[in-house]
Amino acid sequence: MKITTNCLLLAALLGLFALAAHADAKYHVTLTQAAKIGAQELKPGEYHLVLDESKVLLIHLPSGESVEVPATIQNAGQKYAHTSIHMQRAEGENQIVGIQLGGTRTRISFR
Q1: Sign of the C-alpha dihedral computed for residues 60, 61, 66 and 71 taken in this order
Q2: Backbone φ/ψ region at 64: left (φ over 0), alpha (ψ -120 to 50), beta
Q3: H or E stretch including 26?
Q4: What does each C-alpha distance from 59 to 26, 63, 90, 91 come to in angstroms?
């Protein structure tokens, strides 16, 4: 009986650690002005980014609205010191073409 209880406790702890590790896959970025990723419009404000293999989910924290966009996620040779958002001006609008995540080697390129 004691072994079964210990096994259940160990399984619960491992589950909590797995959830904590998964939560680390979320990143924060802040847009100071409206921008687009492809055809998707993003409002200014803070966003959670959740990375997947071929897409990124952006969750606008003030409103809770989310946008899922196709992306290419790459690893650089060294860590980025700061998070930076790379934009281009296209047809009078800001177009996000990439994000480098500070403290990681991760670069996100949008198609």
Answers
A1: positive
A2: left
A3: strand 26-31
A4: 10, 8, 24, 25
What's the pLDDT tens digit per position in 28-65?
999 999 999 989 999 999 999 999 989 999 999 999 99
Nearest to 74 by CA among 43, 38, 109: 109
11 token code pair: 């399984």
Tokens of 92: 């009078």
Token code pair at residue 58: 């952006």
Q: How far is CA 6 from CA 15, 17, 93, in A?
A: 14, 17, 58
Task: Give which of 50, 98, 44, 48 is closest to 76, Cα–Cα.
Answer: 98
What is the C-alpha to C-alpha distance for residues 96 and 14, in angstroms, rounded to an integer?
Answer: 38
CA distances from 17 to 6, 51, 71, 82, 96 (A): 17, 19, 28, 27, 34
Q: Is the pTM of this model over 0.85?
A: no
